[in-house]
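We emphasize that the prediction below concerns an isolated chain of 268 residues; any contacts that depend on oligomerization or on bound cofactors are therefore not represented. The input was used exactly as deposited, without trimming of termini.
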Amino acid sequence: MSSAPIKLSAPATKEFWEIPVLFEDEHLLALDKPAGLLTSPDAENPQLPSLIALLHAGIAEAKAWTRERNLAYLMNAHRLDSDTSGVILLAKNKPALLALADQFGTNLPLRKYLALIRGEPLADQFEVDAKIGPHQVLPGAMRIDPENGKKSKTKFTVLEKFSRSGTVLLKCEPLTDRTHQIRIHLRHAGFNVVGDQLYGGKPIWLSRLKPDYRLKPGKEERPLLARAALHAESLELTHPVTKEALTITAELPKDLKVALKYLRQFAA
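Result of the prediction step, given as a token string:
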């Protein structure tokens, strides 16, 4: 199987992506989804590019990466939020997809995320067990809904503290699969994900970290991290066909690496 990145383009928005392949065999394809790309088409904004729509267009147009693999089918087994980067798993055939659906629906595969948050938890390990449902006012948003929401649970572990900036790096392990689950559970616990504009998370600015920061004349400062600081670091599951234990990992994207570099340098 080819390990070369899959090249996708959206002419309507003049965007281009080279998406790394994290794992591949005759049944599965795992990709490192970039931040800012939807997983599936948005019903309210169908003009926005999405990973699945672009992959399906590539198959229909018989792009080189589809011919190399003799691909006729691809479907995602789970979703990542648009802002979230990292591991996303796709099935190359319907039997594999159905088997994955059984795993994600019952014995949920172990997923580990990294998140940068504002605020410092009182304990290094904590859990949030709170039902989640659609927000009644904000379209596309979710909220804690004790009466009508779906059961949701997430485990959190503090990895690093950057006390001078009021930010913390967390490991997040969702034990259920709900829309915006990590973001909503953190907000319920009193924290916001850095850069999460939908739920009030503020970006990180180098000027507020570096004591001698100077901006060049005529230049406008851009945030180190403007999107929601969430990364799907790893996925552990049973292979739906071979039944072998499978762990797929994705490296930190450049924006998170840079943000952590400066936080460790100036705010630890």
